[in-house]
Amino acid sequence: MPSEIVRPTSEQPLLSIVIPAYNEQQRLPQSLRQIRDFVSRQPYAIEVIVVDNNSTDHTRGIAEEFVSEIHCLRVLIETIQGKGAAVRTGMLAAHGAYRFICDADLSMPIDEVNKFLPPQLDGYDVAIGSREAPGAVRYNEPTHRHLMGRVFNTIVRLFAVHGFQDTQCGFKMFRADIAEALFPLQTLTGWSFDVEILYLAQQRGFRIVEVPVNWYYKDNTRIHPLRDSVAMFADVMTIRRRAHQGHYGPAAHDSTR
């Protein structure tokens, strides 16, 4: 399927920033201040969506307090537990011509989102923030975490999404029509949701590109190396099984292999 150049309508924001948030009361205030300042500097229209995912702390209240400072901010609630469920809700509620998944810790500085937008980048369907593409830089990442990521990426490339060096960076951009085609088909609600989404995109022949980013390791991550690695491997096998069973529909020509 050929990619198109997207131009927003006069009433449509160019960019939607979707932030899934679960118990983020410590990190969210600083991140929203940075996003507020970023929004104020841009010449184009932006909306910001925080999706509270059953937080048991003050995440929702903090996000709602920022509505007075970030007038384009909406706060949504997703009661199905899991990052994938929160992202799906935000992406399908968004109005932007481009829709950006953004981790709440801003391990990729928010100013780098312009690397994913015209005029710096255009003519794609899905753009993946990559810590492995030429020009990308990782800061302060422990060796064991890097190795864990490389092992999982190898599994992903072998069994699900082919040809990409970093499918798990939490920063990804989708054209609006592509997001609306893919996210209703998503079935995984946990950490591996983006492998499923990228598998569906590749299955349909959508154009996927990697964008090198500067990425800063944050030591308060919630990923448990052993437990989550096993769970994510099981999810990849689930994607394979569902594809074999025809759950996702017939595959289109895969132009990204």
Strand content: 15-25%
CATH class: Alpha Beta
| Main β-sheet, spatial strand arrangement | 3-2-1-4-7-5-8
Largest sheet: 7 strands, mixed
For this structure, the CATH topology is: Spore Coat Polysaccharide Biosynthesis Protein SpsA, Chain A
Instruction: Report the CATH architecture.
Output: Alpha-Beta Complex
Low-confidence stretches: 1-5, 253-257
* Structural class determined from secondary elements: alpha/beta
How many strand elements?
9
How many domains? The number is 1
- According to CATH, the homologous superfamily is Spore Coat Polysaccharide Biosynthesis Protein SpsA, Chain A
- Write the element-wise H/E pattern from the N-terminal end onward: EHEHEHEEEHEHHEEH
Number of H- or I-type helical stretches: 7
Q: Give the rounded overall mean pLDDT.
A: 89
Features:
257 residues; alpha/beta; Spore Coat Polysaccharide Biosynthesis Protein SpsA, Chain A; 7-stranded mixed sheet; 7 helices; disordered C terminus
Overview of the molecule:
The protein has helices at residues 28-41, 59-65, 83-93, 143-159, 176-182, 193-203, 225-244; strands at 15-21, 46-52, 73-77, 98-101, 126-130, 137-139, 172-175, 208-212, 214-216. The protein is of the alpha/beta class. The chain has one domain (15-244): Alpha-Beta Complex (Spore Coat Polysaccharide Biosynthesis Protein SpsA, Chain A). The chain has a seven-stranded mixed β-sheet, with helices on both faces. Helix 1 links the parallel strand 1 (15-21) and strand 2 (46-52). The longest helix has 20 residues, at 225-244. The protein is globular. Residues 1-5 and 253-257 have low confidence and may be disordered.
